[in-house]
Amino acid sequence: MSYYLAIVGTEDNPIYTQEFGTYRQGGDGNSRFSPEMKELAPFILHAAIDMVEQTASRTNQLYLRTVDNFYSHLVSAFVTAGDIKIMLLHETRNEESIRQFFQEVHDLYVKTLLSPFYFVNQPITSPVFDQRIKSLAKKYL
């Protein structure tokens, strides 16, 4: 199973992206997306932004569950209070672990946002942030 994570800013700009695989059931953490899917993943998530915004306007929940699909791939989303979208492209329905993953990623993003050296909508290039995202993926996905 493969996952593609994107944190999208308030101006629909990508702040952070990461592709990874599962560690469950003997997985090694490497993505198994086909070459075509690797190229399409950013476009699929970008196309789902309208669905995320539409779903978010109808609810007061931060975790929006599955908002869109593309063939056998699903798009789940989490919207922060500051209108930052955390989106995940995945192949399976494991809602509870994805919800927990989103909550942890949200906490990590808020900690980054509290840094005096980070500004909203600025790309996150920290190797520490990257490593923590990978460890969260290993824990939950």
Automatic annotation (TrEMBL):
Gene3D superfamilies attached to this UniProt entry: 3.30.450.70
UniProt GO cellular component terms: cytoplasm; nucleus; TRAPP complex
Protein name (database record): YALI0E03520p
Annotated GO biological process: endoplasmic reticulum to Golgi vesicle-mediated transport
One Pfam family from the record: Sedlin_N
Source domain of life: Eukaryota
CDD domains linked: TRAPPC2_sedlin
